[in-house]
Amino acid sequence: MGIIELALVAIKGLSVVLNNPAVGGKSSVKFQDASELLALLGELLTRGDEAHDELVAFTKVVEGMAAQGRAPNRVEWDTLRGRSDAAHDIIQAAAAATEEETEQVFLEELTKAELLAQAARDGVSVPSSATKAQIIELLEAVEE
Amino acid sequence: MNHVTVGVRQFQTFYLLAIMLLLQACAGANPIAKAETTEQRAFATYGTFVIIEEQAAKLVSSGQISDSAVRAIARADSQVKSVADSLLDATLEFTVIRAEFESGGTGEEQFVRAMNELNGWVERARPLIANLISAVRGAE
C-alpha cells in the first residue's frame, strides 16, 4: 500500500471519528469543518492524479497569494467563473439530453389510443389516419 | 481503565499515526488551509468548487454513468453553482468596500457587514460542494 492509499484510509477513518462523539469525536463546528474538509480531500485523492494535481497547483496559487499578502484580482476571478460556467453548461446539457431521451422512450411505450389521449390533453390536432410515429412527431413538435 | 477505554485509546493512537501520513500526503493539496484572509478563503473555496465541477463535467460527458446519475450531478451542481456565484459576487463587492474603507471612504460598520456577508456565503457554499462531491462519487 503506497502513501496515498494509506493516507486515504486515514482520511476516511478520521472523518468517521470526527463525526462520532462515541469514539472521541466532537460535535463542535470546528470539528465538523475538519471532518468535511477531510472527506473532501479523501474524495479528491480517490479521483486520481489529475484532480489531485489540479488541487496541488491551485493550492500553490493560493499559497503564493497569501505569501504576497494580496487579494485575488478580477482576472483570476473571471478565469475561475469562466471555467465554472463552461463546466456548468456541459453538465446541464447532459442532464437535459437524458430528459429528452426519457420523454422519447415514454412516448414510444404508449399505445396509439394513449397517444391520441395525450394529444387531446395537449391540444394537438391529429389526423385520424396518423400513425403512431406521426403522432409522436406531432407531440414532440409541440413541446419544442 | 476498562476494556472500552483501552480500545478507544488504541483507536486514537492509530489515528494520530494516520494523521501524520495524511499530512504528508495532503500537505500540498489544501488551498483553503493556505488562505489567510477572507478574500483568499473565498477564492480557495470557489476554486476548489471549480475543480470538482470540471471533474463532474468530464464524468457526465464520458457516457459511462447512468441517466439518473447525470441528473443527480446536475441537480447538485445547480444548487452549488448559484451559491458559489453569489459568493464570487459578494467577494467582488467586498473588495470594493475594503478599498473604500482603507481610504477612509466607507465606515467600519459597512466594512464589517460586507465581511460577515462574505463569510456567510463561504459557509453556505461548503456543504453544497460536499453534496456535489457525493453526487459525483455516487456516479463513479
Provide keyphrases for this structure.
heterodimer; A: 144 residues; B: mainly alpha; 86% helix
Describe, in plain words, how this protein is organized in 3D.
The complex is a heterodimer of chains A (about 140) and B (about 140). Chain A has about 140 residues and is mainly α. Chain A has three domains: about 1-70, no CATH class; about 70-100; about 110-144. Chain A is about 80% helix and about 0% strand. Chain A is built from six helices and no strands. In chain A, helix 1 packs antiparallel against helix 2 (about 30-45) and helix 5 packs parallel to helix 6. In chain A, about 25% of the residues are buried. Mean pLDDT of chain A is about 75; it is low at about 20-35. Chain B is mostly helical and about 140 residues long. Chain B has two domains: about 1-30; about 35-140, no CATH class. Chain B has five helices and no strands. Chain B is elongated and about 55 Å long. Chain B starts with a helix and ends with a helix. The model of chain B has no long low-confidence stretch (mean pLDDT about 80). At the A-B interface, helix 1, helix 2, helix 3 and helix 4 of A face helix 1, helix 2, helix 3, helix 4 and helix 5 of B.
Oligomer: heterodimer
Main interface: chain pair and counts: A-B, 61 and 64 residues
User: What percentage of residues of chain A falls in helices of 4 or more residues?
Assistant: over 70%
> Number of helical runs of chain B?
5
Could you report the average pLDDT of chain B, rounded to the nearest whole number?
A: 78
Distance between the termini of chain A: 54 Å
The major β-sheet of chain B equals: none
- The fraction of residues assigned to DSSP E strands of chain A is under 5%
